[in-house]
Design brief:
Layout: E1 5-9, E2 14-19, H1 30-44, E3 50-55, H2 66-69, H3 75-91, E4 96-100, E5 104-105, H4 107-114, E6 117-121, E7 125-127, H5 140-146, H6 148-157, E8 161-162, H7 163-169, E9 174-176, H8 181-192, H9 197-209, H10 215-230
Parallel strand pairs: 2-3, 3-4, 4-6, 5-7, 6-9
Antiparallel strand pairs: 1-2, 7-8
Helix pairs in contact: 1-3, 3-10, 5-6
Length: 238
């Protein structure tokens, strides 16, 4: 069975992870999430120093695979794989650079937010449309980047924003033409690895742990409780 991600590691330790379901707009299936989780685990204790994450085709990631959500027998598997994947991305001990080549919607936007740095193509679009379908999005890591007010508005409205607005609000730090995106992300990655690896990993631990609320505490509410109430039909705390 073919993999749903593609990987490459350069001699200097710069790795590229590409979401490779272009025919499904790189939707995050159970299989893809598990492959990402395992790949990051393999790279955590290896010569890889930084990872550039991007999508194949014209889309970065359309979010979770809605075909799977329609299969009630997969509900627990969807939740469990989702939890493992989100925490694997968040806790990856080395820098992650998102090269957002196209639309990053729902879970695709969350994936960019969980990375350390974001660079976008002019073709990139961001948004949380899942609110319109009854699934509240992740809020906490987004507000750490763009601020409380902007994050609240984006999560509640689910509206789309283009790369120019993403740059203006600080979601991304650079916008490039599509043909320059991957090169720009790799340049950023190689700028990062000019620092000693021990310093980078220490800084990454600090970045993960410095927020006022822990990611796990927020995630238990924004992810686990949402799945329990909206997918598994379990009542949340009163």
């Amino acid at each position: 069975m073919s993999r749903e991600i593609e990987t490459q590691v350069a001699d200097d330790g710069v790795a590229t992870l590409t979401l490779a379901r272009s025919e499904r707009r790189n939707a995050l299936s159970i299989k893809m999430r598990d492959e990402i989780t395992q790949q990051l685990a393999d790279w955590a204790d290896s010569a890889v120093r930084v990872v550039v994450l991007t999508g194949s085709g014209p889309t970065f990631c359309a979010g979770f695979d809605l075909n799977e959500f329609g299969q009630t027998e997969l509900a627990q598997q969807i939740k469990d794989s989702s939890r493992r994947y989100h925490l694997a991305v968040w806790h990856f001990p080395k820098p992650l650079v998102a090269a957002v080549n196209g639309p990053a919607m729902g879970g695709g936007m969350d994936l960019t937010v969980l990375c350390d740095c974001r660079i976008a193509s002019t073709a990139a679009v961001f948004g949380h449309p899942e609110i319109k379908f009854g699934a509240p999005p992740l809020f906490t890591p987004l507000q750490w980047i763009v601020g409380l007010g902007v994050a609240r508005e984006l999560c509640l409205t689910g509206r789309r924003m283009d790369a120019a607005e993403a740059l203006r609000i600080g979601l991304v730090t650079r916008v490039t033409e599509p043909e320059e995106l991957l090169g720009g992300a790799l340049t950023m990655a190689r700028s990062i690895i000019e620092a000693p690896q021990a310093a980078l990993e220490t800084a990454k631990r600090y970045l993960i742990g410095s927020a006022s609320a822990t990611f796990e505490d927020a995630f238990a509410v924004e992810h686990d409780q949402v799945f329990d109430e909206f997918l598994l039909g379990r009542p949340g705390p009163s």
